[in-house]
Write the structure tokens for this entry.
Amino acid sequence: MTDTPCLLIGAPMDCGKRRRGCLMGPDAYRTAGLAETLTELGRAPRDLGNVTPAPLRDVSGAHHIHKLAENIAWTEALSDAAETAMAQGFPIFLGGDHALALGTVSGVANHAATQGRPQFVLWLDAHSDFHTPQTTDSGNLHGTPVGYVTGQEGFDGFPKVQNPVPLENICMIGLRSVDREERAALQDTDMILHDMRAIDEHGIAAPLRDFLARVEAENGLLHVSLDVDFIDPEIAPAVGTTVPGGASFREAHLVMEILHDSGLVSSLDLVELNPFLDDRGRTASLMVDLTASLMGRRVFDRPTRSFA
């Protein structure tokens, strides 16, 4: 990971839910100095601009699904972009709502298959996002990416998932808002699940290290999907799905520092940042700082920031 150039790929996808604003996320990360921060860390970032969705086509589907055709178009484009980027460097996908992971994760998994290596996913999120278009009550597809990339049924009209991620290769940390249907479905899987009570009782480092040991033992590629709502909204308010009781500042940075130490991460999503809801850019700046920790910056040499 340390010798691979970082590729910044904007994904201004804002159709996975009804509350608007995530399309401004990529520009907020750029304004918060993500490229400059990566340059300081010697990561030679290249900004590839924003992905453009594939052409819209007529699709049939459940009428309650929000912007189905747009979600399919983004999934097609992002899957191709992710697979291509994996062959060139370390892609960082700047979201955009979490529906972008339908494309990014399926794309990186396609690349892993070409390398003959298993794909693993670390899902840092308050939500499990294991719905399908048939089970979601809201009709918002940002709650479905894990269902899609693991090959669950019901995604009519979407590109066929060529290389589903095995359920046991997904680790979720930070869960604290999982509805009844998802909870029942998850209990029948081998997915690795750590809710915030488990984190409160046992800490965040041990379960993460256990998962990373598996990734290393199997010579896997590791995609990290970081949702703003993984973090407590007291310090990261710029998200439309705020759930109290999230990861603290130090817990979030510790996760990123451990991931850096492992050297296993091969791609990253930064999702659900809604700058319209932010407070003087504090959430965007925090997400940039977390990315810096993933790339090797320690808390003791983090620069002091002024919000005056």
About this structure: Strands lie at 6-11, 46-50, 90-95, 119-124, 170-175, 192-195, 221-227, 265-271.
